[in-house]
Structures are given as structure tokens and as C-alpha cells.
Amino acid sequence: MSKVKQNKLNLFLSLILISITIITTNAQELSVEEDSTYANYLLINSLTKKIVPISDAGPYNITYITEINDSLKVADVFLLSGNIRTLDKDFLEFDIRNESIEQNFKDGSIISTSHNYSTHYYSENHLPRKVDLKSIQYMNYSKPARQVVHSIGIGTMFVSAATTLVFAPLFNYNFKTHQFSSKQYLDVVKFGLMGFSVGVPITYLTRVKKYDIGNKDSQNKDVWYFEKVENIQQ
């Protein structure tokens, strides 16, 4: 095998390795044993009573709004990434990994800030945040298996796009004769496009779900509420 072909092959294998790394890293993060502190919470649909168990195999997001009645601000919107620690009738406590805050002012201006509590210490904010359930707008959450499939879709799209845009022309160009094999190029592109057409719907259909949070008595198929179940582990 010539040096040029070997370099092409090495580059292609590196691409495959990157894709596999994306998938396996996500899978390893989701294979962490569930902590009983977090593994006993549910999302329940207020109309159908469909149940979605909340796993702590990875962080998830909740968004809540704090109304402000002063001369400057209207409200603060908080996006928290982390896990539920405790839940009672009116409040939940949330272990925060990352936080984004959007301050909305009456003149229409917005100021956004963010904090990373996993690497920095922010006074009392490193403790679980107590959040009024009535202020929570929605939760972004996906089941662990769904996240793994989503990673597979992303990996497939990544390899397919690179095959179509980079390796198809690279593998079918002869650097010695400066000739280009259009027929072989089209054959490679077909496989790349086929892979991309498979990866796109997989990625789209397994994207993170958004659950609107509200009152359990609302009787609305689009509204969900939190519920705690007793941990049966000894």
C-alpha cells in the first residue's frame, strides 16, 4: 500500500474512532449505578397518568421563574442542570451542577449569567436549591437508553457527513496523475448520504424531551407533575 493511501486510511480510521468514542463515552456516563437518593422520583401526566421514572444516570434540566415586583426588573428565569434531592408537597430541592440566569428588565433588556457549581464554590449556592413547585415551568429529560441511541445517531451523522464531504473526494483523487474518479466518488457519496439519512431521523426522534410542569389536578395531557415514591431498597 502506498504512503498516500495509508495516510488516507489512517485518517478514515481516526474518524471512526472519534465516532465510537462519542457513543461509548455517553454510554459509560449513563451506566453509572443509580443513587437511591435520586432514583425515586417520577414524572406523571396530569390527564393520562402516564409515568416516566426519573433516573439520575446523568444530570437533567429544570427551568423556573421568580417574579420580581420592583422599578427595574420583571422576572428572573433560572435554568438548572443537576438532580432532584428531595421533594415535598410545595417544594423540591435540586443539586445544581450548572446554572444559567436570565434577568428580564422592564425596559426590555436582558442580562444573562451562568455558574458552574461542579468546579467552583459559590457560597451557600453549592447546597441543594429549594425551588417552589409552582414556579417550575418545564423539565428537559431523556431516559438513559434514549440518550445512548441519540449518541449513536450523532455518531452516524458525523461519520456520514465526513465521508461525503471529506473522504469521498480524498479517496478518489490520484495525487500522482491529478485525475479524479467521478464514478467511484459518486459510489462513496451514496453510502455517505445513506448513512446521514439514517442518522438524522434517529437524532431527531431521540432528542431531549420537554415536559411542561404544572398542577396535578389540571387534567391536561400536556402538563406533568412530580411525585416521590418510597425507596424499597434496604
Helix content: 25-40%
Number of domains: 2
Percentage of residues in strands: 25-35%
Low-confidence stretches: 28-39
The tally of beta strands, per DSSP, is 12
Overall body shape: elongated
**CA distance, first residue to last residue:** 62 Å
Mean of all residue-level pLDDT scores: 79
C-alpha-based Rg, rounded: 24 Å
Largest sheet report: 10 strands, mixed
By DSSP (H or I, 4+ residues per run), the number of helices equals: 3
Succession of helices and strands:
HEEEEEEEEHEEHEE
Question: Which structural class should the secondary elements be placed in?
Answer: alpha+beta
Q: Mind explaining what this structure looks like?
A:
There is one protein chain. The protein is an alpha+beta fold. The protein has two domains: 3-29 and 146-205, no CATH class; 32-142 and 208-228, no CATH class. Helices cover 34% and strands 34% of the residues. The chain is built from three helices and twelve strands; from the N terminus they run αββββββββαββαββ. The chain has helices at 3-30, 144-171, 182-205, and strands at residues 41-45, 51-54, 60-67, 73-87, 91-105, 110-116, 129-132, 136-141, 173-174, 179-180, 209-213, 223-228. The strands form two sheets. Strands 1, 2, 3, 4, 5, 6, 7, 8, 11 and 12 form a ten-stranded mixed sheet that branches. β3 (60-67) and β4 (73-87) form a beta hairpin. α2 (144-171) runs antiparallel to α3 (182-205). It is elongated and about 75 Å long. It starts with a helix and ends in a 6-residue tail after the last strand. Mean pLDDT is 79; it is low at 28-39.
